[in-house]
Amino acid sequence: MCQINPDDFAYSPSGGMVRYINWTYKSNFAIVFFSFVVIFLLLVFIFGLFYMWAGNAEPECIVVAGKKFDYYDQGLETKLADGFHLSWTTFTTVGYGAVYTATGNDFEHQRSCIVLTMLCTAEAFIGLLYAG
To answer: Whole-prediction pTM value?
Structure first.
């Protein structure tokens, strides 16, 4: 008969993640806190770059202070700052409302915003896992 080894289905976590978690138990609080801040800012910045890319592709899908994403067109720094702002409010689920994804009232062609919506959903989920 067929013998099934239960170890074939055992959980096998990432070695790097296990080493990092074990390191956090051995290090002092300030260094661990600093590492959490760096990881948080790195994740927010990466998602901010994705939002900037998505905003350039479909500017009507991101609303900044009541206007579409590229309304003021003040250059790369402003778009990156707006993408970063949308990213940290999504990641932390704070959602202040100064920068947000367009709703049906803002932009009626919501099908063109599906990539941005999925990106926001993924970031909010990752943010919740990170906070947990």
So the answer is: 0.78
- Distance, C-alpha 5 to centroid of its chain: 39
Maximum alpha-carbon separation in the chain: 71
Phi-psi region of 65 (alpha: psi -120 to 50; beta: other; left: phi over 0): left
- To the question of domain 41-131 being in CATH 1.10.287, the answer is yes
Question: How many whole angstroms separate alpha carbon 40 and alpha carbon 50?
Answer: 16
**The two structure tokens encoding residue 28:** 């002092």
User: Read out DSSP for 1-39?
Assistant: -----GGGGS----HHHHHHHHHHHHS-HHHHHHHHHHH
Q: What is the pLDDT along the chain (132 residues), one digit of tens a residue?
A: 567 776 666 766 678 888 888 999 999 999 999 999 999 999 999 999 999 998 888 888 888 877 778 777 777 778 888 889 889 998 998 887 788 787 777 777 778 888 888 998 999 999 999 888
For the chain, the domains span 41-131
Distances from the Cα of 59 to the Cαs of 16, 28, 54, 96, 105, in angstroms?
A: 38, 45, 8, 20, 15
Q: Contact 70/56 with Cβ under 8 angstroms?
A: yes
